[in-house]
Amino acid sequence: DAARRAASVAPLLRLADQARAQRDRAAEAVARLDRHDRDEVAHDVQEAVETAARVQALRPAAVRLRDATREVARVEAQAVRVERDLRAADVRDRLRGVEAQVAVHEQLTRVQAQVVVAHEAWNSARETALSLQEQLLSVREARLESMAGEIAGALAVGACCPVCGSAEHPHKAAPLPGAPDGAAEKAALRAVDDAKSTEHLRDVELRDLSTRRALLLEQAGSSSLTELLAARDEALAELGSAAESVRDPADPAEHRRALEHERADTRARLDQLTRECGKLGAALDEALTGSGHDDLEALLASLAARTQSLRSVLAALDALERGETACAEAEQALDEAALGAGFETADEAADAVLEPTRVAELDSSLAAHDRRLAAVREVLGAPDAADLDALDPPALEPLEAAHTEALARLSRVRSTQEQGARRTERLTALVADLEEALARWAPLRQDHEVTSRLAAFVEGKSSDNRLRMRLSAYVLAYRLGQVVAAANERLASMSDQRFSLVHTGDRGAGETRGGLSLLVRDDWSGETRDPATLSGGETFVVSLALALGLADVITQEVGGAALDTLFVDEGFGSLDADTLDDVMDTLDSLRDGGRVVGVVSHVAELRDRIPTQLVVTKSRLGSTVALRR
Predict the structure, then answer these.
(1) Can you tell me the mean pLDDT for 85-111?
(2) Strand (E) or helix (H) holding 281
(3) Would you call 442 helix, strand, or coil by DSSP?
(4) Which residues contact 129 (CB under 8 A, 6 or more apart)?
(5) 399 CB-near residues (< 8 Å, 6+ apart)
(6) Three-state SS for 81?
(7) Is residue 199 a contact partner of residue 122, using CB atoms and an 8 Å limit?
(8) What is the distance between the alpha carbons of residues 72 and 359, in angstroms, rounded to a whole number?
(9) What is the C-alpha to C-alpha distance for residues 518 and 506, in angstroms, rounded to an integer?
(10) What percent of the chain is helix, strand and coil (3-state, nearest 5)?
């Protein structure tokens, strides 16, 4: 009985022991600390957290300062390169000017030598012309002196003298020995003309070279070639020491403008970065001043360690306070529970506590004793209890076996009953799920049936589609009707009003669906027949009419834009003479409308009807094409 009453106090006993142990551990931890003022420690923790937050907020600034410092170095290197490139560009410009001056001096030297040569050639040509002029005068003088003999040599018997007019020439003058004739004078004159032409050419060359020399002298300036060569060597040496590539840019002026623009951008960027680095550095220096650390990360690590240490002290103080409070509350609850359980003190209740197994054993022993006592009293209280001593005891083993078998059957029946109940419950849930699925499927099945019937109707497979015609064929049938109407206008003229086409929705031979079939009506016989019964020539005429009708319909559909070219390949050989004339008249009417009509055929009669022909001739060496008009 004491153990039962103490059982309700046992948990509180354990809680009180745990609270005392936690309080003692917290007290030992606090005893090892050098600070015991909780408020002061809490204030230090708050101050350390706020300081760490301020320093943490400066981390992006530190990262930006590091990146900006790197960018400053990069931009400074870029500025140095740009300045170096500009100096190299200046050297290039100076070198280009010096080289131009050197080229002018070199060209001036060559031109001056050419002027000397040209002047000598002009003098020689002039002297040659004067000499030949003197020779021409000598030839003319000698010819004049021998003119009487030259005239006498030209006189003939019976011919009149050009001087005196006489037909008789009793004393003709004899030409002087070695006297020149007209041919010699002409040769001398041609030589003079050639010499004067040569003199004029040499004079023109000399004038051109003199003009070039004057221009080059003006361009050469006051510096001598030696000075210019020295300046060029100096510029080449400066350019060789520059880091920029020696290769000249394609556009020096554009290159210089780009470098100057880059220098301005670089300076502006460098100024901006310098100001930014100054601001960031001042903010970081302010945070690091007096901290004893050189960088932000070390300061953050120090603050984190200090914060963690202070938080540990604060946690130990809080743990001791909580442990003392919990211990006091647990001891108070334990005393109240002990009094409520009928004990004077908690120690008395603790002494009465037994193990649960021991309490169970005692309970079992008492219950067994009560049951045996009740059974004995029941037996002894029966009316025939005095006769029990005379009876033989029954065999307990068979009764126990029968009892065990009955219990086993009962267990199996209950298992079967539970399994049947679970199956019934599962089947009920499946039936509900099936009914719900069928309810969801019913609208889809109805939509599917409607869609299937519509698809079959559009495909021409439904019994509702009496024509067995596809929707696409139905649409095309309308267009085919237009083509047939236009083709009949052409076919009437080409067949002498005999044939016309009829569009029918019935199925033709070999067709499973209708809508695009044609029939040919013969107005001479009044019969309507299948196009397969047409002869070769009739088939050609009908096909040509359909092609022309299609072209007319297309022309109307595209806003009147004409199909300007038509080619007809073969088929003319199957036409009789009258039909051929009708077909050609139709094609000629197309040509009158501005179209180009080409005919490919071997029919000889067409040669007289077609004005422009491309004749293909084949031979052993290949085929040739010739134009024939």
Answers:
(1) 77
(2) helix 252-288
(3) helix
(4) 192, 195, 196, 198, 199
(5) none
(6) helix
(7) yes
(8) 86
(9) 9
(10) 70, 5, 20
Do the Cβ atoms of 206 and 112 come closer than 8 Å?
Answer: no
Q: List helix spans (H) across 381-395.
A: none
DSSP 8-class letter at 603: -
Q: Cα torsion at 330, 331, 333, 337 (round to 10°)?
A: 130
**Is there a contact between 513 and 460 (Cβ–Cβ < 8 Å)?**
yes
Cβ partners under 8 Å of residue 517, min gap 6: 503, 504, 505, 506, 507, 508, 511
Cβ proximity of 516 and 476 under 8 Å: yes
Which two three-digit tokens encode residue 97? 């000017």
Helix (H, G, I), strand (E, B) or coil at 117: helix
Residue whose C-alpha is closest to residue 99's, from 239, 211, 243: 239
For residue 276, give the nearest of 124, 70, 115 by alpha carbon.
Answer: 70
- Provide the Cα torsion 247, 248, 249, 252; round to 10°: 160
Count Cβ atoms below 10 Å from residue 13 Cβ, excluding itself.
19
pLDDT, position 105: 81
Whole-angstrom distance, CA of residue 450 vs CA of residue 128:
118
Q: Which residue has the tokens 């029990």?
A: 388
Question: What is the distance between the alpha carbons of residues 70 and 280, in angstroms, rounded to a whole number?
Answer: 14
DSSP label at residue 569: E
What does the pLDDT read at residue 241? 55
Residue type, 607: R
Whose CA is closest to 575, among 537, 544, 617, 602? Answer: 537
Question: In the predicted model, what is the mean pLDDT of residues 46-66?
Answer: 74
**How big is the CA angle at 591 (ends 585 and 596), to the nearest 5 degrees?**
130
Size (the chain), residues: 629
SS3 567: strand
Query: H-helix or E-strand containing 617?
Result: strand 613-619
Task: Let me know: does 176 contact 149? Beta carbons within 8 Å.
Answer: yes
Region at 292 (left for phi over 0; alpha for psi -120 to 50; beta for the rest): left
Confidence (pLDDT) at 509: 55
Closest CA to 135 of 188, 64, 67: 188
Please return the burial class of 41, using the count of CB atoms within 10 Å of its CB with bins 0-12, 13-18 and 19+. Answer: buried
The letter for the amino acid at 240 is G
List the structure tokens of 274.
Answer: 């310098």
pLDDT digits (tens, 9 = 90+) for 380-420: 887 777 777 777 777 888 888 999 999 999 999 999 999 99
Separation between Cα atoms, residue 602 and residue 219, nearest integer Å: 81
Environment class of 161 (CB within 10 Å of its CB; exposed 0-12, middle 13-18, buried 19+): middle
- Judged against a pLDDT cut of 60, whether residue 264 lies above it is answered with yes
Task: Say which residue the tokens 């018997």 belong to.
Answer: 157
Q: What is the pLDDT of residue 157?
A: 65
C-beta of residue 615 within 8 angstroms of C-beta of residue 626: yes
Q: 0.70 exceeded by the pTM?
A: no
Instruction: Kindly state the average pLDDT of the residues 459-484.
Output: 79
pLDDT of residue 243: 46
